[in-house]
Design brief:
0% strand, 209 residues, Homeodomain-like_sf (chains A, B), DNA-binding, Tetracycline Repressor, domain 2, homodimer, 2 domains, repressor (chains A, B), Arc Repressor Mutant, subunit A, Tet_transcr_reg_TetR-rel_C_sf (chains A, B)
DNA sequence: GCAGTAATTAATCAAGTGTATAATTTCAGA
DNA sequence: TCTGAAATTATACACTTGATTAATTACTGC
């Protein structure tokens, strides 16, 4: 009986493969299904190898969560482009309620990880870091938008508006990703943009992309 | 060595205890921590007994999820009371963004369960049943509110408004429950009511409780 | 009080888990 | 071409998991 052949990979590549395999496992089988063996199989690798790149399974999972959130926010933020604040905010909203951000797979992974935040301090820290970035982005865009609109806006009201808008986006994202409603016939982007405009007191016409 | 003493309980009581112990385990240790032994310990019972009341661990978890959602919606709906639609909707909103509905423990359990919906058909069905109830409730209240306001409202716009409001409530609920923001100095009920009024085009004054 | 029934415990099993380590293989550099 | 070092595999271990079954206990009805 001969050993299976293999070929070496740079450290970064192997790490990425293992993280990708972890996220696939979580998406399809749940967090409980993301066993060391399952992840190794999907990465085309032997279980023992994981230990060379991640001290623990806990570290692997935390790393997977970290890159997952970072990618998610980056993808959403990439929808901003440049231009006036209205346009950038509209881009962010559009990206947040359409694939690949709004998507069943993404939601599954997100929920599985969120479910651990309360009982796992490491995951809690990873979570905190990631979400701060998105909330700050929303708050800044909201601030610019309101100032562009000419309204005088205290920092406190900007903050409150950002909280509300953030909540709306989260909620829409969940509803759409969950797939309970039949959104196939509905223009989710239009709904998201219009309700945002209403919430912020902006002229909806400026929001049409 | 003598056996530990025990006393019998009616079937319904034991089932409730086991479900409660399951939810406690999930909240504090995550879904992975809700082992048969952990649940049994918390219920003051021996692992083997679980099988007498639930065929599988899967059934136990599904039952726990079912009662969790049912209780959650019931608690929120209880905030409605009676009276004009405006008042009932305001009550629902208030209940949704304050304890015990908006609460870290509740969110943890919710997220842990949601994370399984995509990979577990049984949990998916339980989930679907539960959420339909809440969405229908919101849609009905929104419909009544808009009609009370005198606006002519097609069923389609009612539906869209309900989707958006539902999303806003979900998002606020998550933000508040997550505890990332410092909501201690902020009146979350006021924010939720005002933004709802803005969204539905209702006079905010009618929403102050 | 007493017997029978049903609930509960205790003990055990096979399977799967994360982890550890030694044996192998690949590959870069001389 | 050859050698040394690093990556990868293979194997094994201790532990936990969900599940099963027989022995024991508590309670109900007579």
């Amino acid at each position: 009986m001969t050993r299976r052949t293999f070929h070496r990979e740079p450290e970064a590549v192997r790490q990425n493969d293992l993280i990708a395999a972890t996220l696939d496992s979580v998406a399809e089988l749940g967090l409980a299904g993301a066993t060391v063996r399952e992840v190794a199989n999907r990465a085309g690798v032997t279980p023992g190898l994981i230990r060379r790149y991640f001290d623990n399974k806990e570290r692997l999972v935390a790393a997977a969560y970290r890159t997952f959130i970072a990618d998610l926010i980056e993808t959403a933020a990439a929808g901003c482009g440049d231009g006036p604040a209205h346009t950038r905010l509209a881009g962010l909203i559009r990206a947040s309620v359409t694939a690949p951000v709004a998507d069943g797979r993404t939601l599954s992974i997100w929920a599985a990880f969120i479910g651990t935040v309360n009982s796992d301090p490491v995951m809690a820290e990873v979570h905190r870091e990631g979400y701060q970035a998105f909330r700050d982005l929303v708050e800044q865009l909201v601030g610019e938008c309101l100032r562009e609109g000419g309204t005088d806006t205290s920092q406190q009201t900007i903050r409150q508006q950002a909280i509300v808008l953030n909540a709306l986006l989260d909620g829409l994202w969940i509803e759409i990703s969950m797939g309970g409603d039949d959104f196939s016939r509905v223009d989710v982007v239009r709904i998201a943009l219009d309700s945002t405009a209403t919430l912020l007191g902006i002229d909806p016409a400026e929001f049409r992309e």
